[in-house]
Amino acid sequence: MCKTLKTLTITILLSACFIISAAAKEELVTINDLVENALSYDRQTVTVEGEAIGEALERGEYSWVNISDGTNAIGIWMKKEDADSLEYFGDYKHIGDTIQVTGVFSRDCSEHGGDVDIHCSSLKIVKSGHSVSNTVSSTKIIIAAILSFFAVLLAYFYRAKTKKRKNVN
Amino acid sequence: MNNLKTRSPGVYIVSYYTGYIIIGTAFLMTVPLLTSLIMGEWNPALDFLISMSISLLTGLTLMTFGRSTHTDSSQVDWRYGFIIAALSWIMLMFLCSVPYLLSGHTNSVLDGCFDVMSGFTTTGLVLTQDLDHLSTGLNMWRHILTFIGGQGMVVLALSFLVKNTNGAYKIYCGEGKDIKLVPNVKGTARIIWKISLVYLLVGTLALWICGMFIGLSPLSAFFHGLNMFESAWSTGGFAPNTQNIMYYHSFAYENITIVFFVLGSLNFGLHYAIWQGKKKEIIKNIEVQSFFVTSFLACAFAVIKLSQLGVYTDAVSSFRRVAYNVLSAHTTTGFGSVYARQFANEWGDFGILIMVIVMMIGGSACSTAGGFKGLRVGIVFKGIVADIKKVLSPERSVRVAKYHHIKDYVLDDPTVKAASLIIVCYMVLFAITTLLGTFYGYSLADSAFEAASVSGNVGLSIGVTSATMPALMKIQYILAMYLGRLEFISVFALFGFVIGGIKKLCARH
């Protein structure tokens, strides 16, 4: 009896988790979807997930944080303290924090001169960013050295020949 | 060998000068190389070292091959001038794409070549992937290409490398620039560079300061300022991030770019005249008149229509989203303050048509802009008016039509014919490119928008240009950008030269 009850409880819990995560996933919209269906999403509350890129652009008590989800990029208007909670922003040397943002999407934001943006109401860091180690390949170093050597050599010979020709003339 | 040299000296002349221009561009790679080293980006630094060496080897080989001709530059006739300019652009397209390919941010050689041609021709369409994670060095390279492309690689090579300038004017004209600011072509090339470098200092400083005010860190604001200025002045349209000008979310930043891309789209002759104190030239010049009339009408019509459709309802958003994009299109810059698909989904057929028209007209002749140019529109318009007047006036009266472009010119039939011919060439190119787009299943509006953008070297996209588009379309777009930039004649001369050479070879065997 106890075993059956345990199995039943676990099954219910797992099902609940599955339903909740499915519902959460259902709400996620890609940025390209937002742009493509901007008229229907206009002034609606949406949830997007993407990597914070570049840097936070501080504007008084608020900041702009641009995020990219691989399909496109969009500006998120959020409180400065929310922006400050982000540690990494994506660039050549970093992978930015992946954040999930819920907020009101505007196709023609009246507060920001017709910007296509999302005014953030809640922010969650889904995955922390990190520095990227760009290791230099030894093959690349060797190729660069060989090619540079030959370029200098050819330049030297060209110069020598041109000088010789000038002297003859 | 000597027999061959006397029989076909053209091959050696073309080889020598093409090599010269390639070496000039190879030296340019020191700028992104140093940037990479300063920023501690070791992989990109090696990429540039490799690319520079390959370019130097290619350039020196070509110069060695054609060395015998360099002492006598008077041999460079018009034909060779055009061929040298056209061939240099093709060779540089391949050589300058090496850093892109080594960076791993392009999917294929074709995509790399597409982006380089887009930069050189100041178009601004992008196939490079993941722009937001590009190294500072590669971003610097992308924007240098567009900056140099705006002024012209040939202009650069002539300014700093060529000692003998007898044949240089012909090569210079081959790049679509035919204005002589001073009698000496080297002097003209140097003036073009002086004008651009002064604006470079002023523009970078303005955008740097503005960048810091809008929240960028000082170092980042500097690189953004430099890159965005280079792009705006050369009417290029590249930006360091995926969102283009939308990345900054700033009205002030947008306004500064407007100032510089409008200035960049004006004739270098006009800049020089104003620098010399001839301020009235701004009002009298036919190109300025043409530009202000067409841009005002286009902005007004687009704003009214989009306001009627309810797309943008208030004045600020109408200016930032409509007028900005129309001006960006008219000057052939290509900075976009709306997403590509917003043109298709929200602007409607009228809005798209307005954009197509202004993209085709473009900026001024002998500027950094593309399109068939305001000067030609003005000449053809005045030509039509003159013809109507001629028909309406008595047979015995003789009327002489004139137009003002730096100085007064008589509007004769050959001038009108030459201007019309180039416009017809652009229209044919636009039609073929549109046709290809519709062949691959894109809508007529989308195909026409993108065709106007590539033919006019604009860079705005409606969403057609992507890494996944058919390879043949990428090739056609490269060709359209190339033909549009060099204004046809040089490319036709190169084709004729190659076909002539093949015929000669066939006849010998």
Structural overview:
The complex is a heterodimer of chains A (169) and B (509). With 169 residues, chain A is of the alpha+beta class. Chain A contains five helices and seven strands. In chain A, the strands form two sheets. Chain A has a five-stranded mixed beta barrel with strand order 1-2-3-6-5. Chain A is elongated, with a radius of gyration of 28 Å. The N and C termini of chain A lie far apart (110 Å). The radius of gyration of chain B is 23 Å and the shape is globular. Chain B has helices at 2-7, 9-28, 30-38, 42-65, 78-96, 98-103, 109-120, 136-151, 153-160, 168-174, 185-213, 218-233, 251-264, 268-275, 281-284, 286-308, 315-330, 340-346, 348-361, 374-392, 413-439, 444-455, 471-486, 489-508; strands spanning 402-405, 407-410. Helices cover 69% and strands 2% of the residues of chain B. In chain B, strand 1 and strand 2 form a beta hairpin. The longest helix of chain B has 29 residues, at 185-213. Chain B has a domain at 2-264. By secondary structure, chain B is an all-alpha fold. In chain B, helix 5 (78-96) crosses helix 24 (489-508) and helix 13 (251-264) packs parallel to helix 17 (315-330). Chain B has a two-stranded antiparallel sheet. At the A-B interface, strand 1, strand 2, strand 3, strand 6 and helix 5 of A face helix 4, helix 17 and helix 18 of B.
Average pLDDT for all residues of chain B = 87
Fraction of residues in β-strands of chain B: under 5%
Tell me, rounded to a whole number, the average pLDDT of chain A: 88
**Which of globular, elongated, flat, extended, rod-shaped describes the shape of chain A?**
elongated
Give the helices and strands of chain B as they follow along the chain: HHHHHHHHHHHHHHHHHHHHEEHHHH
Number of strands of chain A: 7
